[in-house]
Design goal:
The structure holds 2 protein chains of 2 kinds.
Chain A (H helix, E strand, L loop, with lengths): L1 H8 L5 H35 L18 H4 L7 H32 L5 H9 L6 H14 L7 H25 L4 H8 L4 H30 L2 H6 L6 H11 L3 H33 L1
Chain B lengths: L1 H5 L4 H28 L1 E4 L3 E4 L4 H42 L4 H9 L6 H11 L5 H8 L13 H25 L3 H9 L4 H12 L1 H17 L2 H6 L7 H10 L4 H26 L2 H4 L1
Antiparallel strand pairs in B: 1-2
Helix pairs in contact in B: 2-13, 3-7, 3-10, 3-13, 7-10, 8-9, 10-13, 12-13
Classes of the chains: A mainly alpha, B mainly alpha.
Chain lengths: 284, 285
């Protein structure tokens, strides 16, 4: 802050006070870098152990480097179908939840209607309920309906349910700070409501919709608790990891963990870069 | 599309209907079923019947109050540690991040990109009995020669803290970032010491972030059972572990359902107490 600018012009002082000033000025930076080290340490472990060459079942101790876990990523029975189920659920659930959530967000921001307060509460509640209660209550619902068999559909229903609120919050944040005059101008120029939505609103909120899709997909593919309660005998990737952890997780679990991390990180980095480019374009 | 034009008043309800219906049928109605189940008696073999058996609730508290207390203790400690540990970093990013802000925020949420269970397993590796951390602590005599970290409450609390840290750091960052730096400078110009300026200006202005972060960390932490399962022993089991095993292993649905409600009630009660302590407007505003 201001202190930094002043220091540069200060006359030279004794070595000790300069050193002290350096520490004082940078203690926060040093601490923050340590913090990031702590935050990223387990990620480093996950990546490193995806290249481990374990002897026996346990992948706890570093034995030696190998590409084999990556080459035979589906070399463990069950892991392939688990990943495909997770991807499938993730795609469908994030699509449905984003459509439903975007509609709710549009209604909340665009229209005055009776029941807005109740709607807000209903959207907020699932976010503030512990996952175990979400999972358990949905389980009791399904248990009490005789024709329900646990599996793909119950997992999908559950994932859409806990994703909707995240989609609403994401899209709403974008809609609130958005210039309504653009829509009014379109309407004044003779566009009807639907054309205005398609030609003006939708392109403007498209980044938020994309963000909601990605967020929902990430939450869905990562979910363990709610899925665990409602999956029956089907196994998603997190459920596979849970089962494997009981007997010692194979290195292929780390391979998939690393792959998911790299894909998610690249998408987010792309987003950051695009944002930065957009900002610098606005400035010039 | 002419339909929308003629019935403008209907449009918001048409937009809301599918999403709210989904939440109603698969979130609210299930809570009702959970309540219904919690007052049943019987067994899985002979079937459960609704008998207003409030005794389930009494039994849940009587038999498992230790687990409830432990859950809130672990969640509480983890929340406070997360707050203290991440506040300086949120402050640093907000005021010194400059053009790296977005990238640093990405670093904060990076753990979320690794599957929850896998990052917890990574802590299992790090804290393992002959791992680097334990050996160092043994050399420093901070842990006795055959002491361990894994399967202790320390490991469970550390795991919970780590897993929910971004939920604390992000809201903190958002509220600190919004603080007008001129206010802090004004305080310092008026001869407040750095510490005073922080305590009287920065900290109160970041209270919304503290409140949001605390709730976002505490609520999921209190219901968690993954950390206790993977990093702890049965001595460290939380109420989530009991609910999970009663539902899925012992199929004692009424007991599990009543425990879920006690957990919810306890969380709501502690949130309300917290709201009273910090002022209600912080929660809604």
């Amino acid at each position: 802050m201001s202190a930094v600018a002043v220091d540069a012009k200060r006359p030279p002082q004794s070595l000790f006070s300069t050193a002290w000033a350096f520490v004082k000025r940078n203690v926060l930076t040093v601490y923050s870098l340590l913090f990031f080290g702590y935050l990223l340490l387990p990620i480093g472990i996950v990546i490193a152990f995806s290249f481990n060459n374990p002897t026996g079942r346990f992948n706890y101790v570093w034995q030696g480097f190998t590409w084999n876990n990556w080459r035979y990523w589906d070399g463990v029975p069950g892991i392939r179908s688990a990943i495909f189920l997770s991807l499938e659920i993730g795609f469908i659930a994030s699509l449905i939840a984003t459509v439903l959530g975007t509609s709710i967000a549009l209604a909340l921001v665009r229209y005055g209607f009776r029941g807005r307060g109740t709607t807000n509460i209903l959207v907020f509640l699932p976010l503030s309920t512990p996952e175990i209660v979400l999972g358990a209550s949905l389980l009791t619902l399904f248990l009490n309906i005789s024709f329900v068999t646990f599996g793909f559909w119950t997992i999908l229903i559950a994932h859409v349910m806990f994703c909707i609120s995240f989609a609403v919050v994401t899209v709403k944040a974008r809609l609130v700070g958005f210039d309504r005059h653009l829509e009014e101008a379109a309407m004044d120029l003779g566009a009807n409501e639907w054309a205005t939505f398609r030609k003006v609103t939708l392109p403007l909120i498209a980044p938020a919709i994309l963000a909601a899709l990605l967020l929902c997909f990430a939450i869905s593919i990562d979910d363990f608790v709610v899925t665990y309660f409602n999956a029956g005998t089907r196994v998603t990737f997190p459920l596979f990891v849970w089962g494997a952890a009981r007997v010692g997780a194979p290195a292929q679990v780390n391979v998939m963990g690393t792959a998911i991390f790299v894909v998610a990180l690249s998408l987010m980095l792309l987003n950051v870069l695009l944002q930065r480019r957009r900002e610098s374009q606005v400035r010039t | 599309m002419g339909f929308f034009h003629q019935h403008r008043g209907l449009t918001p309800y048409l937009l809301l209907a599918p999403g709210l219906l989904w939440l109603g049928v698969f979130f609210l109605v299930p809570l009702g079923f959970l309540a219904y189940q919690s007052l049943q008696s019987g067994s899985i073999d002979f079937g459960y019947a609704f008998t207003w058996s409030w005794g389930n609730y009494w039994n849940a508290i009587k038999n498992y109050h230790g687990h409830f207390v432990r859950s809130f203790e672990y969640a509480g400690i983890a929340t406070v540690v997360a707050l203290v540990v991440s506040y300086p970093v949120a402050y640093w990013i907000a005021f010194r991040g400059g053009r790296w802000k977005n990238l640093l925020l990405l670093g904060i949420v990076a753990p979320f990109f690794v599957t929850y269970l896998i990052r917890t397993l990574a802590w299992e590796t790090i804290l393992a009995d002959h791992g680097f951390v334990v050996n160092t602590l043994r050399d420093l005599h901070l842990v006795s020669a055959n002491g361990r970290i894994l399967a202790t409450s320390t490991a469970v609390i550390a795991g919970i803290t780590y897993n929910f840290l971004p939920f604390m750091a992000l809201p903190l960052y958002v509220s600190i970032e919004q603080i007008d730096v001129r206010l802090i400078e004004a305080a310092e110009d008026l001869y407040a010491s750095k510490l005073h300026a922080f305590l009287r200006v920065t900290l109160p202005l970041s209270l919304p972030g503290i409140v949001a972060g605390t709730l976002l960390t505490f609520i999921p932490a209190a219901g968690d059972f993954i950390n206790a399962q993977l990093l702890g022993s049965t001595q460290n089991h939380m109420i989530g572990n009991v609910i999970q095993s009663k539902f899925l292993e012992l199929t004692d649905y009424p007991a599990a359902a009543s425990m879920s409600f006690v957990l919810m009630a306890a969380i709501v009660a502690s949130v309300l107490l917290y709201a009273r302590a910090v002022g209600t407007e912080q929660l809604t505003g």
